[in-house]
Write a structure and sequence with these properties.
alpha/beta; D-Maltodextrin-Binding Protein, domain 2; six-stranded mixed β-sheet; globular
């Protein structure tokens, strides 16, 4: 068996998209997948070190690892009319240099936030601590991600949607890129193709058996939310749109990287298609 380390966040959509494989519902050929659950910023940092074979990453940091990792086409998360939320206390008005809690320096939401609020003073903390930091007054505002966007303290309100920031920066008609998966380039190409196809099958099976999988995830205490809230969240971030990158999603990624290059966050322009696993090899191998 070829052992593959697959790192993902403990977020409900990452768990949902991976655990069909974990539960043995997908044919994995001669591969044995071991999963590692870490928060997204830790995954970003570990990807920069080349730690795991396959890892969830923030799309906003991918240009920093593009020479060591290829982008996978599957298990992607985009917002469409929704996304992370900048929240503050209802009794608070933000100054130009407000202090804000972000879930990590390398997250996509942090990248877009800094482009839009260049004078804000960010501090970085675990995303699970951000809501309370705002409630307590430790920070003036914070960007909520993952399931926390669905339910937060009554003393808080939304100052700005990251979705609205994206539309202002990128224009209408493009989904908001948030996160995806990357695979180490040192793996043989035929192996990388196999792994991508297995993961694609895993997301397809998860969607096809959504109700059954959700019940099992809840019963095994693998997700932080349940029932209607879990269904709502998965409809947002783990759906048919997550199975495989579409042309529109690729266009959105290109716009994200264009914005980053224009603002000198990235050293060179890039087109996302150039960093996908080439499928021509598979077609030749099977011809």
């Amino acid at each position: 068996m070829k052992k593959i380390e697959l790192a993902h966040s403990p977020d409900a959509d990452d768990i949902f998209m991976y655990f069909a494989i974990k539960f043995g519902w997908v044919e994995t050929k001669d591969y044995e997948f071991t999963n590692i659950g870490l928060d997204i910023e830790t995954l970003n940092v570990e990807a920069m070190k080349g730690t795991y074979d396959v890892s969830a990453i923030s799309f906003g940091m991918y240009p920093l690892i593009k020479d060591e990792y290829a982008l996978l086409r599957t298990a992607v998360s985009f917002g469409d009319g929704y996304g992370p939320k900048l929240i503050r206390r209802k009794d608070k008005r933000l100054k130009r240099n407000f202090k804000v809690a972000l879930s990590g320096r390398y997250t996509t939401n942090a990248m877009l936030f800094r482009l839009y609020y260049p004078d804000a003073r960010p501090i970085y903390m675990d995303f699970l601590e951000i809501e309370q930091a705002v409630v307590s007054g430790e920070v003036d505002a914070g960007v909520l991600i993952h399931e926390s966007i669905l339910d937060f303290d009554d003393s808080l309100e939304v100052e700005k949607e990251i979705w609205d920031i994206w539309v202002e920066l990128a224009g209408e008609g493009l989904p908001l890129p948030l996160g995806g998966m990357a695979i180490r380039r040192s793996l043989p190409l035929n192996r990388a193709i196999d792994i991508e196809n297995i993961l694609i099958d895993g997301v397809k099976v998860a969607n096809d058996r959504k109700d059954e999988l959700c019940k099992k995830l809840e019963a095994d205490n693998l997700v932080r939310i349940s029932d209607a809230m879990l269904t709502k969240y998965l409809d947002m971030y783990a759906s048919d749109e997550s199975v495989e990158l579409s042309e529109l999603q690729l266009k959105a990624l290109d716009k994200l990287y264009e914005l980053g290059f224009e603002k000198e966050l990235f050293s060179e322009p890039m087109k996302s298609k150039d960093y996908l696993i080439p499928r021509e090899y598979e077609e030749l191998r099977n011809s």
